[in-house]
Amino acid sequence: MSAENETLVATQLAAQLEEKKENAALVDFKMVTFSLADKDYSIDIMHVKEIAKAGRFTFVPNTLPFVLGVYNLRGEIIPILDLRIFFNIEVPPRDENKLENMLILQVEDQKFGVVVDKIDKVIGVQKSSIQPPHPLFGDINIKYIDGVVESNNRLYVLLDITRIFSSKDVAETPVPGAPFEKPQRIVKQVQQAAPIPKAQAAAVLEEGKVKSPADIARSISGEKAPAEEDASAVDIKFISESLLTYKNFTVSSVNSSWVKHRYLEWSKETKKNQLQNSNDADSFLKTFWSPFSNEWWSKEYADAVAKILPDNSAKQIVVWNPGCGKGTETYSLACILKKRYPEAKIRIYAQDIDLLNVSNAGLMSVPANLASDWYSPYLTKKANGEYTFNQEIKDSIMFEYHDCKNTNALPSVDIIFARDILSLLDEKAQESVVADFIEKMKGNAIAIIGENEEMPDSFSFGENAVGTLVAYTKD
Fold first, then answer.
1. Alpha-carbon distance 453 to 431, whole Å?
2. This prediction's pTM
3. Are 69 and 57 in contact (CB under 8 A)?
């Protein structure tokens, strides 16, 4: 080789060596990689304490489905979670004698074991190469992803372990994720393990009220467990996002008390902590809607409404009924008003954004069985044998196509009957509509909203309760 060629080769080798040194110097982030259902994921190595293989976890009752149980790690009792179940990935039947691949993680001052399919290796990358996840990410909810990064022609999803395992409410704007597919049913086997010291076992069980891995870890370490509502704050935040996505239902101060209570009830019933589809959202909300929504009222409910209506000697009673639906609620209310104020002229402004419902409401026929019910005095029989409301009741109602979020050119009202509609508005619209309520209400007027709703915190109303019904008055 000529001296010129030798010099060229030496220069190239020196340049390559210098480039490798520069690249090595730029590696400022290391992550442990693993697989779930043959897809690549990673975790910040700073959260990984060790890698282990273990099995025969001690089952803990009344925990969420992804909590496999607890494990004695060299005298320290830690909760064990299956990330596949957490992310709704199908899990093959478990062999109780098979050891599971586990990452032992530490988040803040708590340790967890997470079960994965396969643990790969440690990879170093540049932080600048981590890209934000695409909004249409379909495998897991986007709020649990820190980013995506490519290494050696493989794309890794970097998980936000702090968000996944923290039971504290993270104060940031929720990011809507892709809808979840309904997970396969997974039958968890109760496995036997070495006995756990009585004091530690009592901490784990905490009278059967343990709800999350964070709670288990805090109990074992002797810390005071947070309130059940606080422990499920992150789950409720996700529930809120899903309700908005699937049902246009806004969780706010109007209904947050009910949502928190319902979450605890629903998660016990279904063993789920997430809404995975529209059917789940329907199941969650089934107890929210006020009695006899879109149905004819029972005599007992009609009597309760009549009882909460205030005394009023006015010659005309003006009522605003936004969200009237098909009209069953409006007609029922009209009959009660006529009974409660027999000498007054009743005027109901019934509004809805469903044009078909509003158009057909005035032509509604009444089931024959109502003719022998409390509706009887307000019905008439048509020539074809069908029943309908008498002309006085019909004349008292004006069905209109109108969105209550827009300007309402109504006179001052004596009664606002707006069951459940506030929860179907965004928070800004809730504030605007309630402000309109106050503006339209006469001094002695009342407003009745959904039985599981409350007026927004920013408004001050007086309250008068009769059973489960609440009449709000100007304070």
1. 14
2. 0.55
3. yes
